[in-house]
Amino acid sequence: MSPTGSVPLIQVKNLKKYFRTPKGALHAVDDVSFLIKQGRTLGVVGESGCGKSTLGRTILRLTEATSGEVIYGGEDLLKFNKHQMKEMRKRMQIIFQDPYASLNPRMTVSEIIAEPIKVCRTLTDKNEINNKVNELMKTVGLAERFVNTYPHELDGGRRQRIGVARALATDPEFIVCDEPVSALDVSIQAQILNLMMDLQEERKLTYMFITHDLSVVKHISDDIAVMYLGQCVEKATSKELFRNPKHPYTQALLDAIPLPSLKEEDKLKKVIKGEVSSPINPKPGCRFSVRCPHAKKECRERNVPLVDQGDGHCVACVLYQ
Amino acid sequence: MSEKLLEIEDLHVRYRTDEAEVYAVNGLSLSMNKGETLGLVGETGAGKTTTALSILKLLPSKVGEITKGSIKLDGKELTKASEPEMRRIRGADISMIFQDPMTSLNPVIRIGDQIAEVLELHSKDTNRAHIDKRVDEILKLVGISKDRKSDFPHQFSGGMKQRVVIAIGLACEPRLLLADEPTTALDVTIQAQVLEMMKELKEKLNTAMILITHDLGVVAQTCDRVAIMYAGRIIEIGAIKDIFEGENHHPYTVGLFGSIPDLTKETNRLSPIPGMMPDPTKKIPGCAFADRCKYCMDRCREEEPEEYVVGTHMIRCNRFGAGKEAEA
Question: Is A38 helix (H, G, I), strand (E, B) or coil?
Answer without folding.
Answer: coil
